[in-house]
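Re: the request from the purification team.
They wanted to know what the chain is likely to look like in 3D before they choose a buffer screen. I agreed to run a prediction and write the result into the notebook, where they can find it.
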Amino acid sequence: MLLDRFGDGDDAHDCEYVGRTCLLAPPVEPDDVARATALIDRALVSESARQTWQYRFLRMAKALAEYRADRYESAIATVQGEPARVFGPVPDMIIAMAQSRLGRATEARQALARAALSYDWSPSRATRTSGWR
């Protein structure tokens, strides 16, 4: 597993990438969520990451970690603002999932509609890994 092999890393980019990858792979066990979140948190406090474009990606990964840990309000708060400008529709998708878990069907549908309408979903658009994610 990725966490066993790379879970002790300290490079901010690697921590975010491994942590986010593990959080996207279902099913995620509670221990794996905690370990992946620890990687993302380690990257978030990295001085080098805080001063680069990468910080927005870290915040989005943190929102995903909060969602996976059933902290839905925190996931929504974490992904709003600057992180909403990365990964195209993903921030609104996280908001939609969290709103749905909180029983807010109308808000969840609105966020999902924003996500669906904000991106060109045609296969020709998926030329890089981020397009497939």
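For the purification team: The radius of gyration is 15 Å.
Please add any questions underneath this entry.
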